[in-house]
Amino acid sequence: MDARFPYYATPVATRYMKHLASAGKVIADSALPTATQNLVAIRASQINGCGFCTDAHTKDAAHAGETSVRVNLVAAWREATVFTDAERAALELAEQGTRIADAGGVTDEAWADAAEHHDEDQLAALVSLIALINTWNRMNVIIRQPAGDYRPGQWG
């Protein structure tokens, strides 16, 4: 399978992705735990059907020491016993923030739960991460970016 066109080789995309990468660095360097960042990126990518990002973030999570059990259970996080309350709150916010049209926005309950477990800087990073991963997902799904060849750390 090939992408519909070489998005990642165009001058506009190159400039745009530098800004996205800079935004990603701000989030990566935040106080939001790396494990939470990986789980949220995986879940949003699963929901959006983005094979490229699902591949990348599951591999990055494993490379960072995440267990295969937790990675494999992200899609069924509500029924799994391996996630903390803070991670569950982040996953719920990620799901509602990804499915805005389906869910009618983010509920006050989901926001309150996330705010109970994360300080303001972590919440800012979490909201930013949800927005950013959805951006990457949409770009990759639109151009049908193939999945499977990602190597951990490939993007920095």
How big a fraction of the residues is strand?
under 5%
Indicate the low-confidence ranges by residue numbers. none
Q: Which class best fits the helix and strand makeup? A: mainly alpha
Order of helices and strands: HHHHHHHH
Mean pLDDT: 95
Distance between the termini: 25 Å
Sum up the overall morphology in one term: globular
- Estimated helix fraction: 55-70%
Instruction: Report Rg.
Output: 15 Å
Largest sheet: none
Output the number of helix runs: 8
Question: What can you tell me about this protein's structure?
Answer:
- With 156 residues, this protein is mostly helical.
- The chain has 8 helices and no strands.
- Helix 1 (11-28) packs antiparallel against helix 8 (120-143), helix 2 (34-48) packs parallel to helix 8 (120-143) and helix 5 packs antiparallel against helix 7 (108-117).
- The longest helix has 24 residues, at 120-143.
- The mean pLDDT is 95.
List keywords for this structure.
single chain; about 160 residues; mainly alpha; 8 helices; about 0% strand; globular
Summarize this, please?
With 156 residues, the protein is an all-alpha fold. It has eight helices and no strands.
What does the secondary structure layout of this molecule look like, with pairings?
Blueprint: H1 11-28, H2 34-48, H3 51-63, H4 68-73, H5 85-98, H6 100-103, H7 108-117, H8 120-143
